[in-house]
Amino acid sequence: MLVELTAEAIVELFREDVRARKELAELLISEPEIRLAIINAVLRDVATRGDLERLRESFERLRESLESRFERVATKGDIEALRSEFRREIDSLAREIDRLYKLVMVSVLGILISVVTTILVRILLPP
Question: Which among 1, 33, 47, 101 could disulfide-bond with 51, CB atoms 3.0 to 4.6 Å apart, if both were Cys?
Fold first, then answer.
């Protein structure tokens, strides 16, 4: 009887036999060229110092960017100071409007007195 051995069948046999799988791993690791190939393959997935330094630099740039953005954001104290200044400006404008109102009223009163005086003079003093 001829049994056809495919790669899939071999993989399945190793999957089922833990001891054989360990022996195969030991055999592969004991070969310098295979061990070097495995190490190189693993090293491609390992972060190097350069990778970590680039990551650190990226984080530093991000931190600086965030700090500069937060410097432009007003704090609660800044907002309170602006509110106080705004209120002072409003109070100043209210006083100015009140002063102008009084000036207009005095002017209207002066005009009214002038008109009334003119009318009374014409009525009371005949020509």
Answer: 47
Q: What is the pLDDT of residues 17-37, one digit of tens each?
A: 999 999 988 888 898 898 888
Q: What one-character DSSP code corresponds to residue 123?
A: H
Residues 6+ apart with CB under 8 A from 47: 55
**CB-CB contact of 34 with 28 (8 Å):** yes
Is the full-model pTM beyond 0.70? no
First CA to last CA across the chain, in angstroms? 153
Q: How far is CA 85 from CA 9, 44, 89, 96, in A?
A: 83, 61, 6, 17
